[in-house]
């Protein structure tokens, strides 16, 4: 093979390699572009999906708030207009949430009863002291609470080391202290802005606010029982159906 022929072959190989390199670079560039497009498309789709989820969550939050508001209104109307339906009979009663239990006050004053004071005077004294603390709870300037984090969730609880509460516990004992603490907890949960007792329909056995369906079931049972008792007293029987 002549030198010129060898040189031509080398040049041809170089040209072929060069073209192959260019083609590979082009292919690689196209692949990168496709990956970028797919990535951008996924991000766009993901963003759209997240926005859709957020819109659903927001809508549900609004509806849940409306439902709670409507339930609260319905319960308030029941308390105002049909209080006779509630009591121990079906385990749902009207409870003043945030009202201090006076029993521990009466108990402590009775135990400390002086020979100079009658039992009636002791009860009066207990009532006055209990009322004093109820008014103190209403005072927004007094804030015996502290923030704590439990399982990553921040919440506000009664601060047992509050100066006033520590003094109360020392002077009046644990039971009186707990009566005030429980009232504070209830107020902080159910009426933190007003800080006065609020009437709630209460599930006695489970010590919680009753659900609307539980209330309606109880009312239905009581209504049915009243009607049955009325029929029995008049000698009437419900119509027989085949």
Structure write-up:
- With 242 residues, the protein is mostly helical.
- It has helices spanning 3-81, 103-111, 119-138, 163-172, 174-190, 212-234; strands at 92-97, 145-150, 153-158, 198-203, 208-209.
- The protein has a 3-stranded antiparallel sheet.
- The longest helix is centred in the N-terminal third of the chain and has 79 residues, at 3-81.
Number of strands: 5
**Helix and strand string, N-terminal first?**
HEHHEEHHEEH
The gross shape turns out to be flat
Low-confidence stretches: 5-14
Proportion of residues in β-strands: 5-15%
Q: For the largest sheet, list the strands in their spatial order.
A: 1-4-5
Q: Which structural category fits the helices and strands?
A: mainly alpha
Question: What is the share of helical residues?
Answer: 55-70%
Please report the distance between the alpha carbons of the first and last residues: 117 Å
How confident is the prediction overall: mean pLDDT?
A: 77
Largest pleated sheet: 3 strands, antiparallel
Rg measurement, Å: 38 Å
Helix run count: 6
